[in-house]
């Protein structure tokens, strides 16, 4: 009876909350899960959320994403401190656990649903020329919607941060914080000094790979690259992805860092709570609390020690500006009292973009064709043996870090990451990928519809160190009105050139013997806006990269860390906001430059290190200075 009730509730959640009713196999999947994995369904497993918050806390954390959840865990280790974690979204659910279904979460109620302003330089294949900036609005933040790829970046990223004047952020300083979180389940990797077991965050290999995963590795070797651990000594080369997964299901930060501490009574978590402003004393310039809306009511809560903004690289600068910290002329236009003129807030926005549509058709039926895979058999495999196609991260199987001619070839700092997928845009017949990426009907119809449901693989070349920078501006002083998002992608010609070379290398990968074995051939229908240009020329590719420009959702750097001498720096190396006491930013916003790879692991590291910086400031001298715990 309990199982039946749980299944019915789960189906209701899946259909009403995130609109998954269209997957016919869903009820069966959920029933199998409930039967074999009651623990995953058990609502008692979830972090406990309070209905009402108290009047005051020691620390208030805004946002429970990849950084915020870590901070909530680490600060509440100190039993004498009382912590409040405020999150605009709701709990995760059973569907957010299933790796293959993550695209269904885009544009659902678990996504803020941001769209960029139309700009002519990129996303020309998208509806209204707007890029979809998917962002988690749920306990666990974007770690609940992401594709779980675990990449730490390159040691040079952090050494560059330090060289800018951010003492304590060099690679040797941050490596212990990557290790602190990690529970590496691959026994071979766990043995090397770059990995560790025993942390809260489970990192594992995919339980399921298609034959294409290994073929991609072989293709990389044929192109002259090594197969290596991309989170180890060197980065240039090919590898199967490592994922933040646990036994074939998503290991979000809520699962990793909040569930195990659900009984800590000094941590209060309030969900469906939208913070609208940081309260700052105008005279002393000290942050003393926040204002928020819950159940349609406005509330205030105060902090004895600090307010910590971990609302992510879009919402953190938005909140700073609403609170009077930002470019003064811009704030004045909206009649916002300027407390700190901080010109860097919302600027320096960096993201990783990839080129979509580099699709290869193949002959054997070995790729992830959606309607072939989501069936009773795969549902049972997922539920009983924790593997099978449902554990695939939407086909992302292999990484390739390569250097184009624009990177220093003798250095190990690649400028392109191939995301090699055993599926591609039209393998689901235009149902999910098209919707998630926001591709226009006309573009899809002309380019992809002719190969709906065909066996295919994709090479998504992602540019790692963009020079084009976007910005976030207020649209209104009403905190519930979304800000203006300008991506400015490809406004620096260098970025077009790097991506073009990335596409050429992707085409070359399809020509390797390893891929030709499957009859690989490039899908040739030209991009509609570029068909006047001769194919395979630089002019054609330069046009092509501006069409299906795909954000990889790594917005960052919008409240950057830097020394006081840098007028655009928003926080110092302790992540304290310049010009205000009692306020820190700890999330993807603080990166001065985006890291060389997918950024979830670096943001978790920032959460770990940020929590330690707080402890170092507030705990007595006798408290251990090295808090990495390893
Ligand atoms: C679809 C998708 C796929 C991705 N895939 C990968 C991947 O495979 N690998 C990888 O490394 N990275 C990936 N990323 C990126 C990575 O997940 C994010 O960069 C990272 O989670 C950002 O962490 P954060 O703490 O800065 O922000 P978030 O995790 O976004 O957390 C911010 C939290 O703050 C809450 N919040 C915001 N405003 C308010 C407010 N006013 N009041 C209360 N709460 C608020 C939000 O609801 C959210 O929960 C992906 C991201 C997305 C969206």
The class by helix and strand makeup works out as alpha/beta
Report how far apart the termini are. 46 Å
Q: So what's the overall shape?
A: globular
In the predicted model, the low-confidence regions spanning at least 5 consecutive residues are none
CATH architecture call of the domain at 49-99 and 134-184 and 246-348 and 549-630: 3-Layer(bba) Sandwich
- CATH fourth-tier homologous superfamily of the domain at 49-99 and 134-184 and 246-348 and 549-630: FAD/NAD(P)-binding domain
- Kindly state the number of beta strands: 25
Bound molecules: flavin-adenine dinucleotide
What is the CATH third-level topology name of the domain at 49-99 and 134-184 and 246-348 and 549-630?
A: FAD/NAD(P)-binding domain
Radius of gyration: 23 Å
Relative strand content? 15-25%
Helical amount: 25-40%
The largest pleated sheet is described as: 7 strands, mixed
The tally of helices reads 19
- State the name of the first-level CATH class of the domain at 49-99 and 134-184 and 246-348 and 549-630: Alpha Beta
Keywords: FAD, Flavoprotein
InterPro entries: FAD/NAD-bd_sf, GMC_OxRdtase, GMC_OxRdtase_N, GMC_OxRtase_C
Binding site for FAD: 138, 275
Cofactor: FAD
